[in-house]
Amino acid sequence: MKNVILDYIEPVYRFCLKRLANRQDAEDLSQEILLCILESSRTQNISNFSGYVW
Description:
Radius of gyration: 11 Å
Order of helices and strands: HHHH
Largest sheet: none
Number of helices: 4
Structural class: mainly alpha
Number of strands: 0
Strand content: under 5%
């Protein structure tokens, strides 16, 4: 599961950067998003990971 999450680091960051237009805020928000995804993937069985992320 961790390898799948690694594929989303850059796209999630770019999405946040485009929305926020501030590098530091985008880094903070993308880290929070990825942490929530990682934590929830430990407790839930996610069948459509891409749909869950976006």
